Amino acid sequence: MDICAICAAQIDGTPDETHWRGLASAMWSEDAAVQVVSVRMLKRLGTGWAQDLLDQVYLDEDTQAWVDNVAAASQHKDANGATLEQGDTVVLIKDLPVKGAGFTAKRGTAVRGISLVADNPEHIEGRVEGQRIVILTQFVKKK
């Protein structure tokens, strides 16, 4: 089964909530891989409608184990080992020079509404001084 280019880009990037409304039907697919991707994306979206769908979905034991293994392998942790979630607020624990932007993100700066980089558990994305930047998780703590 193929996915569209927009879905492929958003699986590893920042998902656009409106594009993923089709998960309401995709999560019922008989293909386990489609079920796993559907549940994974619903968890990343985490909004009211996505949570409602997660409450409805049923997965057999093997498929649920697959979802759990994907989730465990991609957990983002802050400098203290706390698990980071999509939308969390974090605080920088040291001054970070921002390459290409010409400024330094100062220690103590709060970064609200972070996005998790799906293919790298050591990276998150967030806005600092109006710029969207990638931040190493070792330099943040969960607020």
Automatic annotation (TrEMBL):
Entry protein name: PhnA domain protein
InterPro entries: YjdM_C
Domain of life: Bacteria
Domain Protein YjdM C-terminal: 76-143
Organism listed in the record: Aliiroseovarius zhejiangensis
